[in-house]
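lol so apparently i was supposed to do this last week
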Amino acid sequence: MAKNEDIFKKVIAHAKEYGFVFPSSEIYDGLSAVYDYGQCGVELKNNIKDYWWKAMVQAHENIVGVDTAIFMHPTIWKASGHVDAFSDPMIDNKDSKKRYRADVLVEDYMAKIEGKINKEVTKAAKRFGESFDEQQFITTNPRVVGYYEKIGEVKKRLYPAMDENDLAGIKKLIEDLEIACPVSGSRNWTDVRQFNLMFATQIGSLSEGANEIYLRPETAQGIFVNFLNVMKSGRMKVPFGIAQIGKAFRNEIVARQFIFRMREFEQMEMQFFVRPGEELKWFEYWKEERMKWHLSMGIPAEKYRFHDHDKLAHYANAATDIEFDFPIGFKELEGIHSRTDFDLNAHQEFSGKKLQYFDPELNENYVPYVVETSLGLDRTFLAVLSHAYTEEKLEDGSERVVMKLPPVLAPYKAAILPLVKKDGMPEKAREIMDSLKMDFMCRYDEKDAIGRRYRRQDAIGTPYCITVDHQTLEDNTVTIRERDSMKQDRISIEEIVRIIHDRLKA
Ligand code: ATP
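anyway here it is w/ adenosine-5'-triphosphate bound
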């Protein structure tokens, strides 16, 4: 098993054991690609939401939030293009009976070639040492040049076939590349078919004449259809943004990889309305801002990268993804898209209502252009969790698993621990707990030896353990143990709040 795959399995097991994430409906054998957040998970998730909301809404005077309904008028999904085009091409392997996204099979094929290129580069860098010129190497080494040509050829066939909905062309490409099913190893494929990812349900009772509606596949449309409401009631002036955090639903064909790809998930989206012609400037602005936000959590920069889209969606004139180095490799975490005036125009057309802004400086009406930032909450959770998971060998030979979560996101900020369960220590510890618990999420724990209690807090990422011991009863001081360094200091009880506050700001 690859090392990273091994770590991924450990993260998933840890998440379950310590109450971060459970498989949905587990006592009924689970529901595929649906997960529940447990007692620690909900805190971490809420903290991520809060961290995003503060950066996007609270810190920007020209961005406001909304919370729109999951059910929306069905015509909205006609206007947005989801009814006609929100589908993925799927293909089944007749031997393993496994279903795949046809385009992903081809993308994976290209990724394998990229892997070979990277290997060649690493090898050559070692061989040439300091004099290595990567650019020169990849443009002249015959093997690498051949790999790039191959990728180019595949792209030249895949992208037009996807754009033109040429399902037979995609199947032919899979056959020509001799792509085999990773499970059965066979090339016995069905035809490629389109599969719409929206979940449909009925609204209203049958006697009233029920209508088919959809569970929203993205939160963005709730923002577009409220553009006028928010602009007027909030007296907003372009450029301005509307942000929203909420559930989205997609009947994903291949829904594996834990909470990376789920059928019910949460998005944190912001649509920024700008003057036509200024969208690319704002696109660059948000690209940078969003990367800064990710880095502000303290995860190293090499774990993130931009991936500019070669192939733009029909509504976009620029698009990039922020990718994160998950244990399953670099994958999309957030999308930043310059969506032009596509959405507002489409809603004008389908609703018959004008969705325009009067710009007093230009003295003209226009349909604003939109730059969108669209972040998966669950993927952010997975990024933070998998990066935090650390196995350490300690000096005394013992081992610990510690979740090195950014303190601001940790489910609990402090654990209050009486050294022993007697001599008035539990009472004193309770007193401290009561004085802190409205400021921070805290845990009280008096069961088992102190070392085991420290390990339990390490495992859920609690940045501070406050221990009440004999000396506490004499001079009102406690020990404060820092999670990562395990360093312990003696401080007076009055200092606890300030120290924790300072650390959370750092
Ligand atoms: P992908 O290519 O991985 O399917 P996407 O490009 O369809 O993602 P967007 O429509 O741009 O995704 O959605 C914005 C964000 O929502 C993504 O960057 C991702 O973080 C999150 N997201 C999308 N689909 C899922 C899902 N099935 N499960 C969890 N998060 C998701």
